[in-house]
Design brief:
By secondary structure, the chain is α+β, with helices and mostly antiparallel strands. It folds into two domains: 2-223 and 485-544, FAD/NAD(P)-binding domain (3-Layer(bba) Sandwich), CATH 3.50.50.60; 279-480, no CATH class. Helix content is 32%, strand content 22%. The protein has 19 helices and 20 strands. It has helices spanning 14-25, 44-47, 58-62, 69-80, 88-102, 105-111, 146-163, 230-235, 259-266, 324-333, 345-351, 361-364, 368-371, 381-389, 399-409, 417-429, 439-447, 451-456, 528-544; strands spanning 2-10, 30-34, 51-53, 140-142, 167-171, 173-181, 184-193, 208-221, 249-250, 271-272, 277-285, 295-300, 305-308, 339-344, 352-354, 393-396, 472-484, 487-488, 495-497, 503-509. Strands 1, 2, 5, 6, 7, 8, 19 and 20 form an eight-stranded mixed beta sheet that branches. Helix 1 runs parallel beside helix 7, helix 1 (14-25) runs parallel beside helix 19 (528-544) and helix 4 runs antiparallel to helix 5. The longest helix is centred in the first third of the chain and has 18 residues, at 146-163. The radius of gyration is 23 Å and the shape is globular. The relative contact order is 0.19. Bound molecules: flavin-adenine dinucleotide. Flavin-adenine dinucleotide binds next to helix 1, strand 2, helix 2, strand 6 and helix 9.
Length: 546
């Protein structure tokens, strides 16, 4: 199959769909090439929880949160930690993105029918000083209908474009090469892959069935990051985080293979900050895996006691949901790849959420009836399913039985039973007063001052060993790959930059393939990846449409 259009978009994930919708809206013709079957349309965003970073929104104000662009800038600077020469464009992207998140982002989405769950979540709470890492206030806005509902308007725009003859969608078309003529990218070549009935997220065959070449005035690489390719993750692993984990779970489908990044680099695009990644430390093995080593992330409330593989409590402020990368660095420093949450039934019921559209049928299905159960006793169905069927859960009537179960799950690590008991009993002793010195308990009290946390996210403080709060639960936590924060360097129009600092004519990048413009620096405030796709996809699409 061969053809030509005004623009080519590589990848039908959120960034690619947004970019293509912009090109089509401008009245231009665009071809979207996607290596996976149609069942995969939407890429990672379909699986996503649909959390979006917004600043000073009506949802925040209704929950009593006073946010501002200045506060968000302060938080972003402390989190990103820009410190490299190659942070020139990433800094500019961050500034522009903050304006977007505090400005037109919400209205632009609402015009397209996107709505938000009224309770704003508080991710990456930080726990350092005012200029350090973390969100000073809750900013995680969950799309009503999660990831699939965020995709909806862009899928609609692309489908309309197909009907009107402006958009061509070609599945099973894997780009292998960018075509360069007279120093400009003028098209792509690749392999037509054999038809495959793989369901969404499942790996599909790479058997060739033909070849193709497409030509266009602009080529937008929106092929995603490297999180589904453990070899590339290890190869790019940052020295500052120590040696890469021996064992990791994978938090993204296999199509997140990072292959296009090497192809773009060989064509003259510069890759920057490839050692910046965003992986989680609260991964659990999926009891019903879709892709290889499929892990799910627990989105934890702040009350679980976090122990390392030997039973030692993690240091301040590495409490659940406070500092993802700080915790990752600490865990790897212990010489083990796993850690433990120890909690109670009361905590799991209120504080465990699982990231992913399929793990939140109430929000994804927009079901008020199911949603009402979040405030009733009992854990949400998917959490309960993990408790029952998940390999990483231990449920016990007392601490001895719990420790025995933890040891059975990790015979290779020397879990010190005396230490576990000592940590839990000491923590519980601090609860005898309304004051005390345990910083995690202070943080929990602080969190409960926020109405949203008190309502659905943070259990009232209680002793872990209180039999009335039981049974006791331990969860073995693995490192889970997810996002890529570096990639193809781009300017604010999404134009790929070459080693000489100048745009590579005809070549653009968006979404995770560009590390979202690099705007996160080293770390994220969360909910910034989908938003990063919207913003970089929109910029690249508009610029490519001329
Ligand atoms: C479970 C889960 C939960 C998440 N929750 C959130 C959240 O709440 N908030 C948030 O901000 N972010 C979240 N994210 C992250 C977010 O979903 C992703 O960062 C984002 O969707 C990436 O989109 P993309 O378009 O850049 O890449 P992708 O979605 O990876 O799409 C890239 C597409 O390009 C195709 N492709 C790759 N190479 C080629 C090639 N050579 N030829 C043709 N096609 C190719 C791939 O098959 C794929 O379809 C979550 C992710 C997951 C997996």
């Amino acid at each position: 199959m061969n053809g030509s259009s005004d623009a080519i978009v590589i990848g039908a994930g959120l960034a690619g769909l947004v970019a293509a919708a912009e090109v089509a809206d401008a009245g231009k013709r665009v071809t979207i090439l996607e290596q996976e079957p149609e069942a995969n349309l939407g890429g990672q965003a379909w699986w996503s929880f649909g959390g979006l970073f917004l600043v000073d929104s009506p949802e925040q104000r209704r929950m009593g949160i006073r946010d501002s662009l200045d506060l968000a800038r302060q938080d972003w600077a402390g989190t990103a930690g820009f410190d490299r020469e190659e942070d020139l464009w990433p800094r500019r992207w961050a500034e522009a993105y903050l304006d977007f998140a505090a400005g037109e982002k919400r209205a632009w989405l609402r015009e397209r029918g996107v709505r938000f769950f009224p309770v704003v979540g508080w991710a990456e709470r930080g726990g350092y000083i005012a200029t350090g890492h973390g969100n000073s206030v809750p900013r995680f806005h969950i799309v009503w209908g999660t990831g699939p509902a965020l995709l909806e308007p862009f899928l609609r725009a692309v489908r309309t474009g197909v009907e009107q003859g402006r958009v061509t969608l070609a599945f099973r078309h894997r780009v292998d090469e960018l075509v360069v003529e007279a120093g400009a990218v003028v098209g792509v070549r690749g392999t037509v892959l054999r038809e495959d009935g793989a369901a969404r997220g499942e790996p599909s065959s790479r058997e060739p069935a033909g070849e193709f070449e497409f030509r266009a005035g602009a080529v937008i690489v929106a092929s995603g990051g490297i999180g589904g390719n453990p070899d590339l993750v290890r190869q790019n692993w940052p020295e500052r985080l120590g040696t890469p984990p021996r064992r990791m779970l994978t938090g993204v489908p296999a199509h997140v293979d990072g292959r296009m990044l090497g192809i773009a680099e060989r064509t003259g695009a510069r890759l920057i900050n490839t050692d910046r990644m965003w992986h989680y430390v609260e991964g659990i093995r999926n009891h019903s895996p879709v892709w290889p080593a499929h892990g799910i992330r627990i989105l934890p409330g702040p009350s679980s006691v976090w122990l390392d593989a030997t039973g030692k409590r993690l240091p301040v402020p590495l409490f659940p949901g406070f500092d993802t990368l700080g915790t990752l660095e600490h865990i790897l420093g212990t010489g083990h790849d796993h850690s433990w949450f120890v909690l109670t039934q009361r905590i799991i019921e209120k504080e465990f959420a699982l990231s992913g559209s399929e793990q939140n049928p109430d929000l994804t299905g927009k079901s008020l009836r199911l949603l009402a159960r979040r405030v009733l006793p009992g854990a949400p169905g998917p959490v309960e399913a993990f408790k029952e069927h998940g390999e990483d859960f231990v449920v016990a009537k007392d601490l001895d039985e719990l420790i025995e179960g933890m040891r059975r799950l990790s015979p290779e690590a020397a879990l010190d039973a005396g230490r576990v008991r000592g940590e839990i009993e000491a923590r519980d002793r601090e609860l005898a007063n309304r004051f005390g010195k345990d910083a995690q308990l202070t943080a929990i009290s602080g969190a409960r001052r926020y109405r949203g946390d008190r309502l659905i996210r943070v259990a009232s403080p209680h002793r872990i060993l209180d039999p009335k709060a039981g049974p006791l639960i331990a969860v073995k936590l693995h490192i889970l790959t997810r996002k890529t924060l570096g990639g193809i360097e781009t300017d604010l129009s999404g134009r790929a930059i070459g080693p000489d600092g100048r745009p590579v004519p005809g070549l653009y990048a968006a979404g995770e393939a560009s590390g979202f413009g690099g705007m996160h620096g080293y770390r994220s405030l969360e909910g910034t990846f989908l938003g990063g796709c919207l913003f970089t996809g929109r910029q690249a699409g508009r610029a490519a449409a001329g």
